[in-house]
Amino acid sequence: MNAATEADVRVRSRRAEAPAAGAAPQAGSGKLINIDNGGTLTDFCVIDGGKVYRTKSVTTPYDLSKCFFDGLRKASAAIYGKEDLLQLLLSTDHIRYSTTQGTNALVERKGQRLGLLLSGLDAADLQKDAQQKDVFAGLVGTRVATLDPKADEAALEVAATQAINKLASEGANRIVIGFGGAQRDAGETRLKKILLKKFPPHLLGAIPLLYSHEVVQDEDDARRVWTALFNAFLHPAMERFLYNAEHRLREYKTRNPLLIFRNDGASARISRTAAVKTYSSGPRGGAEGARALAAHYGFKRLLGMDIGGTTTDISLVEQGSVTTERRGHIEGVETSLPLCKVVSAGVGGSSIISVVDGRIKVGPESVGGAPGPACFGLGGTLATITDAFLVLGLLDPASFFGGELKIDVERARAAIEANVAKPLNLSVEAAADAMQQAWAQKVADSLKDYTKITPDTTLAAFGGAGPFIACKVAEAAGISQIIIPGLAAVFSAFGIGFSDIAHEYEAPLPSSDAAGLKATRELLLERARRGMFAEGFELADCRIETWLQAGEELVALDGDKLPALPKGAQVAMVLKATRVIARASLSGRFGAQGKAAAAAGTRRVTAGGKAAELPLYRVEEQAGGAQAQGPCVLEEAFFTCRIDAGWRFEINESGDILLSR
Length: 661
Known about the structure:
Blueprint: H1 7-10, E1 15-16, E2 31-37, E3 41-48, E4 51-58, H2 64-80, H3 85-90, E5 92-99, H4 101-108, E6 114-119, H5 130-139, E7 144-147, H6 153-169, E8 174-179, H7 184-198, E9 209-211, H8 212-215, H9 221-250, E10 259-261, E11 267-269, H10 281-297, E12 301-307, E13 312-318, E14 321-322, E15 324-325, E16 329-330, E17 333-334, E18 339-340, E19 343-345, E20 351-356, E21 359-366, H11 385-391, H12 409-424, H13 428-450, E22 457-462, H14 470-477, E23 481-484, H15 491-495, E24 501-508, H16 514-535, E25 543-550, E26 553-556, E27 571-579, E28 584-585, E29 601-607, E30 610-618, E31 626-629, E32 632-635, E33 640-643, E34 648-651, E35 657-660
């Protein structure tokens, strides 16, 4: 079965619909396209009524629009039997897109050379620990200038002009301006008027000037300026690609603007999205999918394990909510934004496995998708867990990646022999077995480092490498139940399909009384009205939520009554406006009276030093309620799972898989 078309058979009961709660959804019965752009592969998930189609394209970092449209063309061929991009786009209601490019750019420090102009605070205020110093050195370095906040108009104009010229001569191609103290907004606005005259933005070569209060409202000066710096660093490259993609989509007369999925779990059109909010948005897509799974199946505590080529992204859904930091961290630096608490461990399907001081070392370095694992035959010579699974028999060269990617067991053996077997004086098979033991233990340790494993913890295993040896990982972590979503290999893309269009607005309270609450709420409602109008919606059609941010605490609001607040805390009001749009949904249940799963044959797999012929079950061939005991192998187009002795699986009518012991 073709890898791109298989999912419409397997996930036949997924639907595009809106939740019952909240505002009524935007009208429409067309397709939903969800795209998750990763560093190695870009995943596509198209929801068309009761069917879900999926495919993948190789990420092209030199031109992201290439893999974007390549994947859309492949998806159209899966749906219509031949490539018809125009028909696909004309029949689509919403396209949601997430990307890790911002995350990767920050990790690699590949972006803009930033300059920083400060007044009322010092660069030292942004470098209070080793992590802040390291990131500051990578983004800003010595390109810093300061202004006297007490200077009069004439003196400020001269000093600011000299400072901008100095930063430009030092190589800054984008400058962030941050004022501190009570007059931060007024001070930045005053300087903006001066600099608009001295450095008109319409002139060729004009350096973009960004003002911190326009990026985010936050009483904490250092945190606000850091947020503005991250946004300035990420903005240009993302802007070029996204607007180019949207322009090309408009040529196909798409119904609605391209929506960008953010780390806070919501989406928005490009012109209403701050680049910094896309940081780690791909993993948040997986977390949103896990949240939907937890709600649908009643999991109290669902630990997400999204294993890709380079990293394992770990998240947690507890009591129906994704674990979130109100003041999230980027590269270890606190920002003003709420961000999903996702930890990326340096272990994945393409992680390099070597021997150091007589012991096996897993990652964090990765061969990525190019050259990739040695078995890909693209020039890679280093050993990875993918090579080990091939040597151990878990992977079938004929069916790997839906048969679209040919893998070479001899190349895998050569890489393992040179990099692991010889240094440890082991056979290739014994070395591969030791590699899988070390790999599973590192993933399990990462799960335990992230959170305490409790008896009610269920593991959600997804991503291309998530299901591989999920049973072994779960045992090492002390977990007894696993769910593998039917769309595991593209689950982050599927997960962003649960997002609505939403924005948050924040402003400090001018006074701690009913009048202050009312004035601030009216201010935020007006900002929300303008913001949602720019999205194409009336505020009356949106769901409105308000609360108070008191220091690091969120306090619920009851009308105009001021709740008890921590003494001395900075207090701000937060208002969230949400427009519900058509989105994905889940169906299917476990525990129904089922029957024995139908084996498609056997596969010779080595584990624990012993080779055995294990029953092979193909997911797409199973009826709802199909069950079987391990040891066995469960496989579909884009993932393979070894189910160990003591474990059993059940596949429901939606294609989701529950493993238990």
